[in-house]
User: What shape does this take?
Amino acid sequence: MLLLFAVACAPDDASPTYYQDVAPLLAERCEGCHRSGGIGTFPFESYDAVAPLAPLIAESTASGQMPPWPAVESETCTPPHGWVDDLRLTDHAIDLLTAWDAAGAPAGEVAEVVVPPDLTALPEPSLTLTPSTSVTIEGTEDQYLCRSLDPGLDAPVWITGLQVQPGDPAVVHHALVFADPTGASASRGDDVWPCFGGSGVPNTSLLQPWAPGQLPYELPPDTGFPLPAGGRFVVSTHYHPVPGEVHEDASSLEIRFSPTPPARRALVTLIGNGRGLQPGPSDRGAPEFRIPSGAKNHVETMVFDNPADALTFKVFSVGGHLHWVGTSIEVRIERADGDTCLLNIPDWDFDWQMLYRYDAPFDALPEIRPGDRLVVRCTYDNTLDNPEVATLLAEEGLTEPIDVELGEATTDEMCLTMLGLAPVL
Assistant: This one.
């Protein structure tokens, strides 16, 4: 994410101008995607490029559509802290963009633009893994491709930071980074294999969902993910082709690790996907994960009871995962002295999967304690009113919704939360 600083400021009684007000804001919050070669449809890198888009920018920001940030607060769910790297605009910023459009998108006094270092680079990486071969992305259909990356570990390490660097930002829509502790993906060699929503390799665990403009994923101080000798990484990349163009991508993975154990051993746990499934509205006898065709506002709920003799864990990050029929997900901790809502995504968008990190000191992070109940609740719309369902059916050559069950395929569904945990010592 780039930050621009103008050398002059607009007078207090003047309308907002591009150079003094709008350019720094767009650079800080929007140009991670909206830049040359980026995934954003329109680059925001000059006045001539941005001024004609002033009405669209004002409308999309006032509606909350942009910048994308699916995790929001609601009357029933307010997480205990804000989020690191929250892209949402303040009311003042939205009003500024609206006023700039209303004033006719004035340029203002041309000012020097200073571009600081790229903030998306992982500080002090231990190594950068780049595939030896590239993949060709062309045509009109999105692709989900996985590949194995070998860090060459001959001793265990503890990962403290990660960052994906897209080789061709024009086609890299998002990526999921998995730890492969057994090195099972080595059997794939340099191959690239199709995958959707997972790694396609057994016993992997998700470390980082990445989206364009996202700052590096940093673990809490003195905390690390363990990766044994011989362990590898699997990166699942969602490619969105540019029609009529051929692109080559060899995205890299920046990793920082420590050879000595930190005080806290972090872990990522996945909860849901049928484990702890509760009775639902479409069950035929026993609880079953099934979203009938034509079902609207269909809810599936998963519950995990933390054993009474378990450790207490701090939750430093949380995310959700559904497929195309899903419309919302909520994750909360229930206990006798009061509930804690960890995550609320009321308008699920498969194209913007993120891992959200709480903006709080370690001691203030929410806890999962012995005897707590973790509840994951997912809502689905399996009707043609859901535009994602209509698109999916067209791709599958179908005209009417079909029953959807739990599974890995595009036409299946999931209900899953990802928690970044560290024990309280």
